[in-house]
Amino acid sequence: PVLAGMNGSAIENFSCVIYNISLMNCTWQAGRDAPGDTQYFLYWRNSRDNDMMECELYIKDENGRNTGCRFQNVMITTEKAYFLVNGSSPGSVIQFYDEYIELYKIEILTPPLNVTVKCTRDSVSCLITWQPPLTSHLEKATCLEYEISIRNK
Predict the structure, then answer these.
(1) Dihedral over Cα of 31, 34, 38, 44: its sign
(2) Which pLDDT tens digit goes with each residue over 50-61?
(3) CB-based contacts of 57: which residues, under 8 Å, 6+ apart?
(4) pLDDT in tens, 20-29
């Protein structure tokens, strides 16, 4: 499809990450050929049933241009979330950028909880136990994989 607007005016390098269970940051860069007065606005929809919502807390660069968004209370659903970034400039038509993202794929999990190590007196064997990390979307933690790095001193 042919996008309306000036070539090279849409945002670039869009990426999002979810951390601390329910916080999300999305960032982008202004289009390389966008006029200096271009301002960008992010809209998103977390599931098919919800309306599009505009970012409530923009991240701005030194010129006051929106280059990201901070989200709170993000719930990860099994569906893909839809992101749309529109651009606005008084003298030009700016291309939009959109993307579908499966939120669970961009989540940085918290560390496992209650890690304990119990070693035998002669240090021949040790038992290491932990609980799964906190997450907003996993009902069963059986799909998580763990890696243990043991360094002898």
Answers:
(1) negative
(2) 789 999 999 999
(3) 69, 70, 71, 72
(4) 989 999 999 9
- For 12-105, CATH number out of 3.20.20.120, 2.30.42.10, 2.60.40.10, 2.40.30.110 equals 2.60.40.10
Q: What letter would DSSP give residue 139?
A: S
How far is residue 112's CA from residue 151's CA, in Å, rounded to a whole number? 19
Model pTM?
0.83
Per-domain residue ranges of the chain: 12-105
- Tokens 């849409």, residue? 10
Collapsing DSSP states into helix, strand and coil, what is residue 105? Answer: helix
104 in helix, strand or coil? helix
Residue 49 tokens, joined:
């049933």
